[in-house]
Amino acid sequence: MPMRWLGAVLVLTASAGGGWMVARRLRRRPQDLRMAQQAVELLRTEIEYGATPLPTALVTVGQRLQGPVQCLLVGAGGLLGQGQGLSAQEAWRRGLAAAEDCSAWTPTDVRVLAQLGEALGATGAEDQIRHMELCMGRLRLAEEEAARVAASQARMWLYLGVLTGLGMVVLGV
Amino acid sequence: MTAINVDVIWQIAGIGMLIVVAHSVIKAAGREEIAWMVTLAGVVVVLFRVVGVVEQLFAAVRSVFNL
After folding, report:
1. Which residue range(s) make up the domain with B19?
2. How wide is the angle at C-alpha B15 spanned by C-alphas B10 and B21, nearest 5°?
3. If you measure CA to CA, which chain A residue comes closest to B24?
4. With contact defined as beta carbons under 8 Å apart, do A62 and A72 qualify?
């Protein structure tokens, strides 16, 4: 009997934990997207007013921020600064792949950032700035949508996790 | 004749309560179609549970009337 109860507690904890993780991811997404917008905005300032070289600009902006964007910018800037002959696009792509794992971005969000990466360092400053403005607009829209989804669904996933666990316990005991 | 397992009744009551809460939570999140799907899944699970008991009932009736 005690083993049975232990199993029930484990099932309930695992299920509630799963629901909590989904809810946390949903709540983190608007935050991560806001950070990405800030990063692009700061990067634009560096390129437009500071005329800073791209590797330095990436690392400087990355160090001012936290979370996945820090991974992305510091990673890409570091790769570019090492002088391995990597193009800016390739460095951005690798930085993005590393940042994706620790972020709550969806594949659509990652695609928006990847598209920005294609323009970085490949064209003139004005063109890059236009790309950044476009990227910020898309990120803002995605953030609004993510905030709406988080407000309506995060609590649902939290409750559903616990309820599913309880259901399994009721059916199994 | 075997006695009917009363646990099934408690199980069904428990599932019913859980499904009611899940339905209202999902509906509040604006996913009414999924809420109904969950309710339907609950009904199916309960039906599977009940089938065994109904089978026992028929067996009992048959044995009582020697059918």
Report:
1. 7-64
2. 130
3. A156
4. yes
pLDDT score of B26 more than 70: yes
Q: How far is Cα A48 from Cα A43, in angstroms, rounded to an integer? A: 8
Token representation of residue B26: 């999902």
Residue contacts between A and B (CB atoms, under 8 Å): 32
Flag whether A51 is in a domain. Answer: yes
Contact B30 A163 (CB under 8 A): no
Name which of B7, B10, B18, B34 to mutate to probe chain A: the one with the most chain A Cβ atoms within 10 A of its Cβ: B18
Model ipTM value: 0.73
Domain count, chain A: 1
**pLDDT tens digits for range A38-97:** 999 998 888 888 877 888 888 889 888 888 889 888 888 888 888 777 888 888 888 888
Residue by residue, DSSP assigns A66-118 as -THHHHHHHHHHHHHHTTSS--HHHHHHHHHHHHHHTS---HHHHHHHHHHHH
What is the C-alpha separation between A171 and A128, in angstroms, rounded? 58
Residue A147, domain extent: 28-172
Contact A171 B15 (CB under 8 A): yes
Quote the minimal CA–CA distance from A2 to chain B in Å. Answer: 18
What is this structure's pTM?
Answer: 0.77
Contact criterion met (CB below 8 Å) for A69 and A62: yes
* pLDDT for the residue numbered A173: 63
B1 occurs within a structural domain: no
* Domain presence at residue B2: no
Instruction: Look at chain B and report how many structural domains it folds into.
Output: 1
